[in-house]
Amino acid sequence: MLPLADYIFLENLRLTVKVGLSAFSLTDQSFPVTITCRVQVPSQKPNTDNYASSYGDLCRAIKKLTAPMKYESLLDMSAHLMVALPTEMPKWDAQHKLIYLSIKKEGGLLRAQYETITRNLRDVKAPPIYTIHGIRSSCIIGIYDHERIKKQEVEIKVSLALPHHPFDLMMPKDWDESVRERLESMLRMVDASDFQTVEALAEACVQHYDFVDELTSLHATLISVSVNKPSALLDAVSSGVCITRQSEDE
């Protein structure tokens, strides 16, 4: 069990930042970015009415740090904030610690709603998690005769647990381009598929993605794929399956 901690937080801070590629692989584009973060602060003594650090200072520090930057990817952006925030925040000392950081980018991928990078820094063993949300496709899927005639919509989420690079700004420069190539390749497979079950489709997505990215050699330790079939049940907003597979090297 993790020890108790006081923290200040920002929830869904909206910024416009130059980060990664556009949906058409264009560079030097600005995107809507949403940041959620938590900073551990020293516990205040009873009957005191002051603060160790301010969430206003945290907001201003993030805005100042990100405004002039042109990030290669969400990985690059998260690594920069982890390193630079302590130098930009007033009153930061050994009792302060960035314990959670999540960055959401919209508009960077075709046929996907958004992508995120999440770092749970309270747990030193927790890996960075990169996720593509709301991947849309249509395919033959189902066990009934009428489901073998017309394609149905499926929505897929892919999460990769990445190697620990907590203070490494030298993230792979080709990461964003690799993300697009792997996503497009997986979607071609899904579009042409005719599985009977969402479980089989999810497994095929994991196998198609693979743990080692050939372009950047970045090695995922876990791959999680969620497949949602919106039309399956009238009484539920969504239904489906989520599977997680671990690299054999772990």
Automatic annotation (TrEMBL):
Highest taxon of the lineage: Eukaryota
Gene Ontology MF term list: dihydroneopterin aldolase activity
Keyword flag Translocase: no
One protein family per Pfam: FolB
Entry annotated with the keyword Cell division: no
InterPro entries: FolB_dom, GTP-CH-I_C/QueF
UniProt keyword terms in alphabetical order: Folate biosynthesis
Transmembrane segments: none
GO biological process: folic acid biosynthetic process
Residue ranges of domain Dihydroneopterin aldolase/epimerase in the record: 130-245
UniProt name for this protein: Dihydroneopterin aldolase/epimerase domain-containing protein
Annotated organism of origin: Protomyces lactucae-debilis
